């Protein structure tokens, strides 16, 4: 158990940012509408994620911390159509094997919340606790029992920057969920849920910068079962790096060559050579037309029909860009 979890942690938990990503993804999978993330010392001292999601029943708390126990798929067919961000049941046991982890949760029909903790692979008995509907996971002293790994942590600032990048990406993916982030007790990001296109653009401004939001043009098209919406940076808002190119498919952040090529193609006549367009784009399509599990990090997809996706995306962008020409 413990050693296997620590070995698995080598893959799942590279640094505090990986912990933050896994915990926030779990909160999103639990249907949270609001997520509060508190970080101390770049996440190596404390990473705490609190949500108002569905919670974990008392009798499943220990299971949530044991290997390959996922509540998210029960059959092979589920695996085909998996919509949740996690489904391997590896994150919590891995994190619990390389940090002190406390899990406190309450479900809607429970009379009280319950809390369990994992310390050096040992699980405590569940104890009653005070907590509203939802879950708080507290991860303290990351890598305290694996000094060789702890040595690889960078400065507080660098580790925080990695966490921040992931949280922003997850927050961009889910404009309908409120996010609050503090580092060393200072609020560093506060994003209310967006209920309109205007809210959403304002929120995007807080996440990627107002200079993008103040000039971006809205795009919304649907063709052949693929809906694409989002914001395109004007050709004059070009970048020297491809650092403001965000794709999301069905609520999940994606990096994909087909998509970035389609965008580059659409901008080909309006950008100078060597410059990069900026955009935040959301695609929705039938999950059966993509294989999101092609890569374990799940940041990559494989389209069943990449040419069709390429065509629809580049045409949609081209039409909007053509409308912005002076
Ligand atoms: P996975 O996400 O791959 O299922 P994890 O190790 O990340 O595996 O989590 C294990 C299980 O713990 C999840 O399947 C889920 O049932 C439960 N869980 C974890 N975090 C939360 C949360 N914030 N709210 C509700 N349930 C959670
Ligand atoms: Mg998970």
UniProtKB/TrEMBL annotation:
GO molecular-function terms, A-Z: ATP binding; ATP hydrolysis activity; ATP-dependent DNA damage sensor activity; mismatched DNA binding
GO BP term, pick one: mismatch repair
Keyword DNA repair part of the UniProt annotation: yes
Domain of life: Bacteria
GO cellular component assignments: mismatch repair complex
Keyword GTP-binding among UniProt keywords: no
Residue ranges of every copy of the DNA mismatch repair protein S5 domain listed in the record: 204-322
Keywords linked to the UniProt accession: DNA damage, DNA repair
Task of the protein: This protein is involved in the repair of mismatches in DNA. It is required for dam-dependent methyl-directed DNA mismatch repair. May act as a 'molecular matchmaker', a protein that promotes the formation of a stable complex between two or more DNA-binding proteins in an ATP-dependent manner without itself being part of a final effector complex.
Similarity-based family: Belongs to the DNA mismatch repair MutL/HexB family.
Name of the protein in question: DNA mismatch repair protein MutL
Gene: mutL
């Amino acid at each position: 158990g413990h050693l296997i979890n620590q070995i698995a942690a080598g893959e799942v938990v590279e640094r505090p940012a990986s912990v933050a990503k896994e915990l926030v993804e779990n909160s999103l999978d639990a249907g949270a509408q609001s997520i509060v993330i508190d970080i101390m010392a770049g996440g190596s001292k404390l990473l705490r994620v609190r949500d108002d999601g569905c919670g974990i029943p008392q009798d499943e708390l220990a299971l949530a911390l044991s290997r390959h126990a996922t509540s998210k798929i029960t059959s092979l067919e589920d695996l085909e159509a998996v919509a949740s961000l996690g489904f391997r049941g590896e994150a919590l046991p891995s994190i619990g094997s390389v940090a002190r982890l406390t899990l406190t949760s309450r479900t809607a029909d429970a009379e009280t919340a319950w809390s369990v903790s994992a310390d050096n692979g040992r699980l405590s008995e569940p104890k009653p606790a005070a907590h509203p509907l939802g879950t708080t996971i507290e991860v303290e002293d990351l890598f305290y029992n694996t000094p060789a790994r702890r040595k690889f942590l960078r400065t507080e600032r660098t580790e925080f920057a990695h966490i921040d990048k992931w949280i922003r990406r997850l927050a961009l993916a889910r404009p309908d969920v409120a996010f609050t982030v503090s580092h060393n007790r200072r609020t560093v990001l506060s994003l209310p849920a967006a209920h309109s296109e205007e809210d959403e653009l304002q929120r995007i401004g807080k996440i990627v910068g107002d200079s993008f939001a103040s000039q971006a043009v809205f795009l919304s098209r649907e063709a052949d079962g693929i809906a694409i919406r989002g914001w395109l940076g004007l050709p004059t808002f070009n970048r020297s790096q491809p650092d403001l190119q965000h794709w999301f498919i069905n609520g999940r952040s994606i990096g994909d060559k087909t998509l970035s090529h389609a965008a580059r193609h659409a901008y080909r006549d309006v950008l100078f050579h060597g410059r990069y367009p900026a955009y935040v784009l959301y695609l929705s399509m039938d999950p059966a037309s993509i294989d999101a599990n092609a890569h374990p990090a799940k940041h990559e997809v494989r389209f069943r029909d990449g040419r069709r996706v390429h065509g629809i995306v580049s045409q949609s962008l081209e039409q909007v860009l053509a409308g912005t020409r002076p």
